Structure formats: C-alpha cells, structure tokens
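Quick one: structure tokens for this chain, please?
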Amino acid sequence: MDIINSLVKYLQDFAATSEATYHVNPWIFLILFFGSAVPLYFGYFLIAKSALKYENHKLKRKKIDRNQLRIGIIVSIAAWWIPYVYVMIFGRLPFGMFAFFIAFILATGFFFIKTLHSKITKAEKS
C-alpha cells in the first residue's frame, strides 16, 4: 500500500509542479491525449476505407476515393495535434519549447502526408 500512496503523491506533485511551471493542467492534457485516440484511429480507418474494400472475406484494392481520403487525413492529423495545440494556446512556455511544439506539429503533419502520398502513388501504379 505504501507504493501506491507514494506513486499517487508523486503524480500529484508532478501535476502541481507542471501546472505552476507551464500553466497547463496536466490532467486536461492527458484527457486530450488519450481522448484523441478514437478520432485518430477513425481517421486511419477512413484512409484505409478510401483505398480498400472488403469482398468475399478478403480485402481488395479499389479506386481511391480522394474525398474520403482527405477527410481521413484531416481527422487523423487534427486528432494527433489536439493535446499539443492545447499546450501551445494555454501554456506559458519558454520560446524554445514553443518553437519545438511548432516544429513537431509541422514535421509530423508533413511526414504523415508525404508517407501516405508515396504509398497511394505506389498503390495506384500497381
């Protein structure tokens, strides 16, 4: 029981220190972080559904539905960014951390779209 109490105390201290230092509620961040998993994977589902169909108990390629693909990309990227945008908007971050968050958001979006585009191009050629 001592281990659980010390863990709870540590988490409370960590939350209080984070809130005092960066003015961001870590519990809200965690709720946004884990809560964004459902829309993130829904976006992935839409991306896969735009290029695949289930027929005769097998997945088969189909002509890509670009509208559904765009919606899937937007949903998944927005869900990925939600907790970080919260920190950027409501937190008082040092400039270095703020720049890191901006770079992180832009880089993850860029590489996600780039990788997805290359896979779609390969799929359309075959």
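The beta strands are 52-55, 58-61.
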